[in-house]
From TrEMBL:
Keywords: RNA-binding, Transcription, Transcription antitermination, Transcription regulation. The lineage of its organism: Bacteria, Pseudomonadati, Pseudomonadota, Gammaproteobacteria, Oceanospirillales. One of its GO terms (biological process) is DNA-templated transcription termination. SUPFAM superfamilies: NusB-like. This is Transcription antitermination protein NusB. InterPro entries: NusB-like_sf, NusB_fam, NusB_RsmB_TIM44. One of its GO terms (cellular component) is cytosol. Involved in transcription antitermination. Required for transcription of ribosomal RNA (rRNA) genes. Binds specifically to the boxA antiterminator sequence of the ribosomal RNA (rrn) operons. It comes from Amphritea japonica ATCC BAA-1530. It comes from the Bacteria. Residues 21-144 form the NusB/RsmB/TIM44 domain. GO terms for molecular function: RNA binding. Belongs to the NusB family. It holds the Pfam family NusB.
Length: 158
């Protein structure tokens, strides 16, 4: 009999953790797309080859990575009225986070608006400048009030 403990089995990531990983990878990939202008398919291939994405919701990753560029003009137009500066003056990380959050608010209505905002704020806290999460929160909260009014009113009992 050995005194060596059996290796611990790594637990399978939860759906929430897998979605969080998908958003994190999507943010990094979209940042690369914004900065390099490379084709999204090339960036996706690179990410899948260079990263361990076994704990990632690959469907969500692909949906965000392809959906944001396909709808970028409409997404920017959706949140731009709430900015306090020109769209071009946004930090590239803030812009990518706002685009992901806007995409989810507009195109992924099965995700509660509070989840979309919280996940976007978390991305800004991890990848953005010191106070960018507050800025992202304010912009997406205003956008949610416009595009998810029915959901917000239902939560308030109206």
């Amino acid at each position: 009999m050995s005194d060596t403990p059996a290796p611990k089995k790594s637990k399978k990531p939860s759906r929430t953790e897998m979605r969080r990983a998908a958003r994190s990878f999507a943010l990094q990939a979209l940042y690369q797309w914004q900065m390099s202008g490379n084709a999204v398919n090339d960036i996706e291939l690179q990410f899948r080859m260079d990263n361990d994405m076994s704990g990632t919701d690959l469907t969500l990753f692909g949906e965000l990575l392809h959906g944001v560029p396909a709808n970028v003009a409409d997404l920017d137009k959706a949140y731009e009225p709430f900015l306090d500066r020109a769209l071009e003056d946004l930090d590239p990380i803030e812009r990518a986070v706002l685009r992901i959050g806007s995409f989810e608010l507009v195109h992924r209505i099965v995700v509660p608006y509070k989840v979309v905002i919280n996940e976007s704020v978390d991305l800004a806290k991890i990848f953005g400048a010191t106070e960018s999460h507050k800025y992202v929160n304010g912009i997406l909260d205003k956008l949610a009030a416009r595009v998810r009014m029915t959901e917000i009113n239902a939560k308030r009992g109206k």
